[in-house]
Amino acid sequence: MTSSDTRTSYPEAAIEADPTVPMIHIWRDFAATPEQLYRAHTDPELARQWMGPAHRTVEIQQWDARDGGSWRFTDSSADDVQSFRGTFHTVRPDRIVQTFTWEGRPDDVALETMTFEELGDGRTRLHGRSLCDSFEARDGWLRSGMETGVNEGYAALDALLAAGQV
Amino acid sequence: MTSSDTRTSYPEAAIEADPTVPMIHIWRDFAATPEQLYRAHTDPELARQWMGPAHRTVEIQQWDARDGGSWRFTDSSADDVQSFRGTFHTVRPDRIVQTFTWEGRPDDVALETMTFEELGDGRTRLHGRSLCDSFEARDGWLRSGMETGVNEGYAALDALLAAGQV
User: Which one of B89, B101, B103, B113 would you mutate to disrupt binding with A, by most A Cβ within 10 Å of its Cβ?
Assistant: First the structure.
């Protein structure tokens, strides 16, 4: 199992393939409390402002962040619209578990788990895990350019936090 | 990938560990149409009558079988009550994708996919896949005695089908 303990800090996201199971790990540190990261992921008005690549517009159709709720958003530029949807299995201050599908491949479903670990000094480490049903599907995501959305999204979240808006 | 094609029929459930990913496969043939198997899994009054081991009582608290819905049931004997819950990610006549948690281990979440393949002659093959986030979790399920609930549940579904109740 890949461990976050081997690295001191993640000012940029580390995106890594798990060596054993078809999972992607993402680690990222924020100047935030766990409560702020929880809020940024569960409040649709906040999530809309930071998720996805810069220069694209996110619109949230559904964001019912509770055990058994569901979510859907679109991410658009002048040229195209992409849609994503899923369910919230677990929504707790320290842990969010949700399903994730890009509607362009409706039969591909990932199971995503996010945890928020307090580091002290007002910093918190986000650990995201995306579990796919095959290594091919997992490696397809890693080749998809997903790092752009991850990095630009988390930079936008940094800015929201710095502006005191979370 | 384990394939159902290597075996002719599954009058009893075949429960197999995937060789590559932390997944359990279940194959089972029924004297039913795909529509009947879909109904048996999505209608809570039908599901209640066949799910789980014989000699235990299933009570359904929630069974909102639609994309983005959720479910919960309890399974009890005179001595104990077990609770299970999850979400429905995809509900289509040919495919159901749902999350699954035994509430005794609330952080363990499996992603389950069921497909219904018409075999002809009024028979349909159910293929269930349960994806876990580690091989340890998967192997724990395989050692849990899950085959009792699977086999007795599907035998009860055979009886409902034979009685024309699905």
Answer: B89
